[in-house]
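Appendix B. Extra example for self-study. Work through it before the problem class; the solution is given directly after the inputs so you can check yourself.
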Amino acid sequence: MSDEPTVRHHESVVTPAGEHDITDGGPDMVQFLDAEGNRLETNESNAPYAEIVEALTAEDGRAMYRDLVLVRRVDAEGHALQRQGELGLWPSLLGQEAAQVGAGRAMRPQDYAFPGYREHGVAWCKGVPPENLLGMFRGVNNGGWDSNENNFHLYTIVIGNQMLHATGYAMGIQRDGAVGTGDESRDAAVMAFTGDGGTAQGDYNEALVFAGVANAPVVFFVQNNQWAISEPNYKQFRIPPYLRARGFGFPGVRVDGNDVLASYAVSKAAMDAARAGQGPTLIEAFTYRMGAHTTSDDPTKYRIAAEVDIWREKDPIKRMRGFMEKNGHADQEFFDAVDAEADEIAARIRKACQEMPNPELPTMFDNIYVDEHPVVAAERDEFVAYHASFEGAGH
Amino acid sequence: MTTQKLTLAKGLNSGLRAAMEADPKVVLMGEDVGKLGGVFRITEGLQKDFGEDRVIDTPLAESGIVGTAIGLCLRGYRPVVEIQFDGFVYPAFDQIISQVSKMHARSLGALRLPMVIRIPYGGGIGAVEHHSESNEAYFAHTAGLRVVTCSDPGDAYWMMQQAIASDDPVIFYEPKRRYHERGEVDIDETAGAPLGLHQAAVRREGTDLTLVTYGPMVKTCLQAAEAAAAEGISLTVVDLRSLSPLDRPTVLDAVKKTGRAVVVHEASTFLGMGAELAALIQQECFYHLEAPVLRVGGYNIPYPPSRFEEEFLPNLDRVMDAVDRSLAF
Ligand SMILES: Cc1ncc(C[n+]2csc(CCOP(=O)(O)OP(=O)(O)O)c2C)c(N)n1
Ligand SMILES: [Mg+2]
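Solution. Structure tokens for the complete assembly:
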């Protein structure tokens, strides 16, 4: 017997700020564009996805760019509406546009998305009108859209819950025989979204176990934006999410979440594999939460401005625009037109928000059950009678 | 007397600090409790002063938080865990119900779990889903747990220390919409806590009817009593403070004196604390009652979107309406 321990403990690769560069995704990270938008050489990590990127046309690139700009604008408008008191809360996606647009564009209409609460960019790609997202943040509903219309599930606020729903939905797709038929319009897969903090939650880990065991057509898309409110990565895990996937029995990939080409290519490869019956993939999009956790948060309490400055240099829109300009994929007229469209959408959202009616009070008793429930029915009647009693009473 | 004017939040913070100073085995755990001081700043400054070993930013997993707190208890620590919002306690429900509440009995008394689970609860803050719930009945229903809630800065300060000193697990509900309410707190160590952890307090004495309430609704009920007084109606207000065990003598004495009772809480009424109190009162005060015990609470629907909450939550008008109905009986 040697003195070598049979199990070696991993060196933690996730350490406190200062001990490693939390702005560097490391050599495994799949990346196609550098911060200026230069197309990187093929290397070991991006090679498997190079073909997908090569197949993209200038037109595809313009469409991606448009999405990036529009979702940033939608987000900025959400933020502004909160500041003006029109919304109670807004969780900003600033900085995460490329991660979300890359993932969102890799989905086909029959694919289903299970978002957390920050996935406004995925919603956009799935065709959900941005106005629909505002209701829950305005306090008029708790979701309020029909998920099946766009195959975009309701936002889930309780961290991790939706990961299991996504896996279960994918198990349903399997039972319907809608994987691996080779029929492009039939084969379907699921994308499940959470954050770096979410990977600590029990539901997340159970979802990965179930997905692995079932070999279900689900792609777990973890946006590692470096922060879970005030907690940095090293307080959530010792080994980053993409490396943990292997332990659940399927591949994990770390992608540059600020590079829309990379995010798209990795997502497309994973979704294609899932639809073909090859099972789950975990994608860790390495990115950054540029803003506060939500409008209720004050990040100056726990993080330094220098970190934000470094990430600002990695801006996803600037990068894609640089790439397009260098390659002559778009002219000023195009960029101006996208900006003008963003203005229009912002104005449309603002108007829709301001005009969103307060719900009729008795509707709070609606849809609690499918079939009428006597307690709820009686309370609704009492509620209506009680409020009627004030009419004309000077209240 | 050494008094200080504190907010309820600061009372909790000072109570935690005092408990940590008194006993090196007291550790705080939760999401964002360190540098940030928690999303409500209840643990503000404590990590800085007591170090990362005693104020632990945990991974984002409530079952993990409570489950590991059990292990820490078994090793002689007194963990005080923070659940960030009421609606996020459910991942820990299994650990609380299956393990925390039963460990002492299962070990025939050999093991103790001196843990405090702090839960900011209740609505009225215009929040999104899962941030406004009153889920105290689940825990009060569970034998083996003590469940308490404060309604003012003084109780925040003293009850927190008493809860931490308790050798039984305590669920400590904090009325989040009252965090910024101010009040004089007698912080005199030698005099100690003015009331036991499980005593109710008569906040106002009247002759016509008793409002039995707790947590965030204490203020609402005191306002109702004020309004009623202007109409010549004299109300007693009992602040339960402890939901399990209930301070029966204080509640029953008050009701016997007034002959009428209305229970007020934010939680839905069906199988809520009001159901237990109504049963208790009718059983013990039957011959003193002039009217059935009434309940004012949240409706029996999931906590609604915030635009509805003003009408969902008991308010002064709804309390007064119940008072009128009781008096008219
Ligand atoms: C079960 C549960 N516990 C706590 C919270 C409160 N909370 C909301 S967001 C958040 C941090 C989430 O971090 P991460 O998963 O990294 O996602 P991000 O917000 O960075 O997108 C916490 C603790 C919650 N929503 N759900
Ligand atoms: Mg995060």
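Self-check: Chain B touches chain A at residues 31-32, 34-37, 39, 57-61, 63-64, 87-88, 90-91, 126-130, 270, 299-302, 304-309, 311-312, 317-318, 321 (CB under 8 Å). If your reasoning did not lead you there, revisit section 3.
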